[in-house]
Amino acid sequence: MRLTCPFCGPRDVAEFVYEGPFSGAPQTERPALSAAPAAWVEAVFLRDQPRGETRELWRHLHGCGCFLDVLRDTLTHEVRAVAFADPADAAAMRAKP
Amino acid sequence: MRPYSALDVLWNGLTGQRGWTRAWRDRAPRPAYDVVIVGGGGHGLATAYYLARNHGLRRVAVLERGLIGQGNAGRNTTIVRSNYMLPGNREFYEHTLKLWEGLSQELNYNLMFSQRGHLALSFDPGFRDAFARRYNTMRMTGADGRWLSRSEVQARAPYLDWSQSARFPIEGGFLQQRAGTARHDALVWGFARAADARGVHIVQNCEVTGFLREGGAIVGVETSRGEIRAEKVALAVAGSTGPLAAKAGLGKLPLETHKLQAFVTEPLKPIVHQVISSARQGLFYMSQSDKGGVVFGGEIDGHPSYAQRGGLETYSEVMSKAVSLAPFLARTRLLRQWAGVVDMSMDGSPFITPTPIPGLYFNAGWNYGGFKATPASGWCYAHTIAHDAPHELNAAFSLDRFARGRELDEEAAGPVPRLH
Ligand SMILES: Cc1cc2nc3c(=O)[nH]c(=O)nc-3n(C[C@H](O)[C@H](O)[C@H](O)COP(=O)(O)OP(=O)(O)OC[C@H]3O[C@@H](n4cnc5c(N)ncnc54)[C@H](O)[C@@H]3O)c2cc1C
Ligand SMILES: [Zn+2]
Question: Secretion signal: which residues (chain A) (predicted)?
């Protein structure tokens, strides 16, 4: 399996770490500190079990270090899309020479 | 069922092996049962057997989408041990080891259970201290285990890297002598045969595709071979739990589905006499099968997957661990490599429990370790199904333990399945 990091290009999956499911914005992945315990239990411990296409948060740990928004198929291992998970990263990485 | 005996073997040897009959019957499904078990792996078949044997239930069916034992039951590295420390886990795993010790006799089926010992290598004082605590706890709660010095380990496993230049110098190890390996297919067939003899229906090529409901309760299943009604429906589908549980209406679960690979070398003369495990650079474990192949494996691939196909990155990682620990493996040829889809729970411990949905029972979360658990899992699950409540041995394996702050995190790794 290969992931194409938007900054580093196509790299072997061994360079990346799977972090968990992703819904679109790193800031909204966890509940507010004041949220009810049930919301925290859900965020920390409970998972959907997608068999097929799924959206996940990965990190290019042994590369640029960015968090990545990955669209992937858990049945075929096809990677459909990889983007920066954090728009701020996208801007900062583009600004680098 | 006529019991197998030495005389039988001798007689059939003399008469051209013509006297053997089918070990169990491949049944067509009936329209209704008392209990329907979904999944013909080790756990489903063991559950059916104990429902009949311990609880007198006769109208029980095991529905398997393919052939029995084609899932993880037929793909694992067959290590059986009870070196668990946490209350809730240790009693359960010691119970399973005790069941294993009498199981070949009880099932009248040779499971080739070999208590050759499980040796966890130690490389540093931190590991030694943590494992000394673990093995002392085990000794105090009825299991066996002891410390071996470097020279004692070397005497048992001279083929490991004992040189000055070893990547990870071994300083000793922890031995559980009653642990060992067994024949995985024999466990499946042993339980199938014994369950069939007690009237359980084993139905193959019967995939459960949905659930029949009345009011809020589940009252049966939809299958590729028609509807089957049941008073109780019990899931035991290991790596397929997520999608099926979602159809049943259980919602989000404390599980992630990953793939785990295993490897076997060409047959060699006996050399690896114990099960060897190492927690250095991540997990590694190996043993030698009775056929001579060195069977080994490492960690899960690290990302959710339902493909029974391993990735090259983990493959090469496991190979590097193998040759750094046991250099002779570099000179052997690898015969086969395969993967299974494992139900990793968020704390590394399993679930055997009734569910909030009336009529539905839940068994999953076996991670790397469900083969050894098979007898006790079936025993406890049968009790849970028959009594609508867990036995004290599986009381800790509930689904709501996370919400109650009662997770059973044996490795103290946190809610990250790839670290368990
Ligand atoms: C590579 C590998 C190595 C392992 N090594 C060890 C080890 O050394 N020691 C140890 O203790 N454990 C080990 N395990 C774990 C162990 O194999 C599993 O935890 C255990 O086998 C799971 O229980 P089971 O036997 O019931 O699962 P399975 O054999 O997977 O049974 C589940 C069954 O359900 C069926 N099914 C799925 N969906 C449906 C449906 N919709 N309808 C009908 N049937 C369905 C499947 O076809 C399958 O036969 C290993 C696992 C793997 C993959
Ligand atoms: Zn990168």
Answer: none
- CB atoms closer than 10 angstroms to residue A25: 11
Give the number of beta-carbon pairs within 8 Å between A and B: 74
Q: What is the model's pLDDT at position B1?
A: 75
> Who's near A92: CB < 8 A, 6+ residues apart?
none
DSSP annotation string for B47-112: HHHHHHHHH---SEEEE-SSSTT-SGGGTS--EE-----STTTHHHHHHHHHHHHHHHHHHTS---
Ligand nearest to the CA of A82: 2
Show the tokens assigned to B376.
Answer: 């006790």
Query: Residue B282: in which H helix or E strand, if any?
Result: none
- For residue B418, name the pLDDT band (cuts at 50, 70, 90): confident
Are B253 and A49 an interchain contact pair (Cβ–Cβ within 8 Å)?
A: yes
Residue whose CA lies nearest to ligand 1 atom number 33? B39
Interface predicted TM-score of the whole assembly (ipTM), two decimals:
0.92
Q: Which domains does chain B have, with CATH numbers?
A: 24-109+183-254+347-387 (3.50.50.60), 118-180+257-345 (3.30.9.10)
Q: What is the pLDDT of residue A89?
A: 84
Q: State whether residue B25 sits within 8 Å of chain A by CB.
A: no
B238 vs B93: CA distance, rounded Å: 18
Tokens 């040829």 appear where?
A: B333
- CB pair distance less than 8 Å for B306 and A51: yes
Q: Say if residues B111 and B185 touch (Cβ distance below 8 Å).
A: no
Point out the ligand nearest to the CA of residue A3.
2
Domains of chain A (ranges, CATH numbers): 2-21+48-95 (3.30.2270.10)
Q: Could you tell me which of B399, B244, B410, B305 has the C-alpha nearest to residue A45? A: B399
Could you report the per-residue pLDDT of A48-60, keeping only the tens digit for each?
999 999 999 999 9
Q: Do B306 and A74 touch (CB under 8 A)?
A: yes
- Whether residue B275 has its Cβ less than 6 Å from ligand 1: no
pLDDT of residue B214 exceeding 90: yes
Put simply, the answer to whether A18 touches B303 (Cβ < 8 Å) is: yes
The two three-digit tokens of residue B208, written as one number:
């459960």
For B52-90, how does the pLDDT look when each residue is reduced to its tens digit (9 = 90+)?
A: 999 999 899 999 999 999 999 999 999 999 999 999 999
Mean pLDDT of B400-413: 94
Q: Residues B18-33: what's their mean pLDDT?
A: 95
Could you tell me the two tokens for B236? 């035991």
Find out whether B89 and B349 touch, Cβ atoms under 8 Å: yes
Q: Name the pLDDT band for A28 (thresholds 50, 70, 90).
A: low
More confident residue, B123 or B58: B123
**φ, ψ for residue B250, nearest 5 deg:** -80, -10
pLDDT at position B159 is 97
